[in-house]
Amino acid sequence: MADDEASPLLTSDASPRAEETASSGPLLESTPLLSDSSSTPRYDGTEDTREYTASVLSAASSRSSQRSKSSKHGTRRISYIAMFILAVLMIAIMILAFILPDAVQEYAKEAAVLEPTNLSIEEITMNGVRARVQANFRLDANRVGNNAVRRVGRAVTWVVREVGNEETEVNVYLPEYDGVLLGTATVPPLAFKLRGGKTTTVDFVTDIKPGDAEGYRGIVNQWLDGKLHELRLQAKAQVPIRSGILPLGTHAISESLVFEGQSLYRSFSSLFFTKKVPSLPKYNITRINVHDVPVPGEDKMQLGADVTITAFNKYPVSLYFPKLAFELLVPSCQPYDQILVAAALTSPVEVHANSDVELNVRGIVKEIPKSLVRVCPHSESSPLDMFLDHYMHGEDATVYVRGGKQLSVPDWVGDILSSITVPIPFPGHNFDSILKEFSLTDVDFTLPDPFAEPGDPNADPKVSGTILVTAAIPSEMNFQVNVTNIRATSDVFYRKKKFGELNVRDWQPANSTETKVSELKIQSRITDAPLNIINSDVFSEVVQEVLFGNDKLMLDIKALVDVKVETVLGQLVLKDVPAEGKIPVKRLPRSLPGGPLDGLDPQVGDVKIIDTTKNSVTIQALVNVTNPTPYTATIPYVNIHVLCNNSIVGEATARGLKMKRGNNTNVLVEATWDPSMGGGDGPRVGRNLISQYLSGWNTTLTIKAHRNSIPSAPVLGEALSHLNITVDTPKLQLPGETEDDKSRFIRDATFHIFSSTASFTLVSPLQHNTLYITSVNATAYYNHTDPVGHIKHDLPFEAPPGVSETPKLPVDWSMGSVGYDALKKALGSQLKLDAFAIVGVRVDSWVETVWYQGKGIGAHIRM
């Protein structure tokens, strides 16, 4: 018969009768150190109790057989009846002792039922803990499947009605760790009823002494590191067994528990059952309150955190924990290394069986270790950055917990707790909605540097403005916070389509103010933040909405913000705080009758021709323009096409332009008149435009960007090319201009009847260049339709800057016409005439033929 006997406190969850662990009688306690959070462990000693009962019954049978042999010789003189009874009894005992032990053991295994009712820690002593174990034990023959075994078991338990043990000491070892003693438990004398249907109530107090702390540390650290592939525990005890007053000897019991892979195997007499490897119990952090804590006796503050943790105790185990001190650590740069950041103290807590447990913890951070904020080698992040990155993105961060210096518990408790470092998942907080409002005001735009290479940050347009942010302070944060600097990388969307990236890579000064409970107003002025346009089509939609839309324009922004925060512990940097908000974009005024850009009102002042070709004229002009938008802009370089009737007639270039709100005077613009850029029909379109402009007609020009408008940012130029901005052709300022003769290039005329000549007063818009009239073919009309005379002149003459008089040009009068008669009648006075002329003009190399139609020209009639 095997002597290896024990009964574990923890058994498989598949046990049909019990859910918790307890020890009764001489049963050996083998409770896992860590509970299983994935499934409720069940405390059921049924199988082990069967083994134990089988051993006890077998031992009782053996001892009875020996006693019967020793008394055999003393019964020979007894009557035949006594001899017969004794012989029958001897034969029965011999049969029980030598023939039936295997059947008895099988009966004990299947019939034994152990129902633990409670396990509680009564007291923590200087040498260990005092635990109270309560359970019910019985034999249930109906659980035995084999009829023969069931009959034999009932017969034996009728003979041996009760067994018990003397006081026993059980030692638990770690064979794979040089046989380190894990702990020792003392089991008091107990007795068990073996008759079917009889229940034994077990209720005893045992002292448990912990073993070598190194054993605990080795197991836990290997398990936490994922290197514990197999763990074997071995329990040993010398158990004295008796039946009533009859001693049944001392039995050496040894039991092994093997943790292997994902299963726990318990080896004893061909008995195996499986169980998942234990893990940390599930828990919830129901409250976190981080606040300032005054330092006793000093005029400074430190950071405190009050945390409430709840869990459900699903075992029939009751415990009492006094105040315990712990150290909190976070991962360092190096693997398997941690940084001490805080000390924590738990409140006393009573753990009741099958009930919720609430634990209150207070932690204190006295200062920020330098190693916590120091950037790790070959990285851009510090250990604090990495910890906060997980926490603020809703991911579980890792906090390591280790026992600290204990003040209210025995030394052995502190030794064990300080020898074990346990990683605890710290649930993250999703900060996606921490920024409630986001706005950008006082916006200035700067176009890219024209000489920057594509891809260079200087090749992007830049935005300056005031950021206003309303941040929702998490309810857990109840300490003074002051934001000093911010920076961000953000994506900008319009109607859920991303069109740009606004990157503030450098730290920008910021300040913060608490506006009301749980709200923080942050203000910062960003300067020259690059705006990288990545989708020109969507950006052009935005610009069109700004210029011509009617609905409220809102842009969406998604950003990762870095924040420098001043706290009582010093400056912290929070990286990649997710921010999502909307940017309201101001539209242009809608009050102008000609549209939002009607208020540009460009006026050309000083005009200077700086270059000419046969087909083109390049001029410099000082332009006065009104900026009707609520924005300012700095334009280092921009080139735009000038169109008329969808045909390019020239281009204009501005350099170093700074557009402020309202009036902008003396803006230097360089423009090139070259209708040949418009293709085959361009010269005709350009000729008609000049002619209409000289004739005082209301003409318009279309300004349009193109891909190379901003050479360093072709995508931006392409986006703006979708916009056609039509403006009135700027009026030139002419010398001596009055309201009556505004924009008239022929101010008046003098007709000499007898010499048949005429001279004209011309006003040139050029202040630095001489215009040459190469030919004139003109007709003067009275009353719009009646010809007065015709001029045809092919000799060139000058039209210098300012006001000048033409030479006398020959006139061929229309004799007998109504117009000529009216001319004669007006002799010595003035007559209003109209004129239509085809005029050849030249400026240096540029030559053009235009037509001119003048109305209401004041003509002086002389002899």
Explained architecture:
- Keywords: Membrane, Transmembrane, Transmembrane helix.
- This is Pre-rRNA processing protein.
- With 863 residues, the protein is α+β, with helices and mostly antiparallel strands.
- The strands form 4 sheets. It has a 15-stranded mixed sheet that branches.
- The protein is rod-shaped.
- The termini are far apart.
- The relative contact order is 0.06.
- Mean pLDDT is 76; it is low at 1-99 and 261-278.
Annotation keywords:
863 residues; alpha+beta; Immunoglobulin-like; 12 helices; 17% helix; disordered N terminus
- The helix fraction, in percent, is 10-25%
Number of strands: 44
Estimated structural class = alpha+beta
Rg: 52 Å
Largest sheet: 15 strands, mixed
Distance between the termini: 158 Å
Low-confidence stretches: 1-99, 261-278
* The number of domains: 5
Can you count the helices?
Answer: 12
Morphology: rod-shaped
| Averaged pLDDT | 76
As a percent range, the share of strand residues is over 45%
In short:
Residues 477-586 form the Tag1 C-terminal domain. With 863 residues, the protein is α+β, with helices and mostly antiparallel strands. Helix content is 17%, strand content 48%.
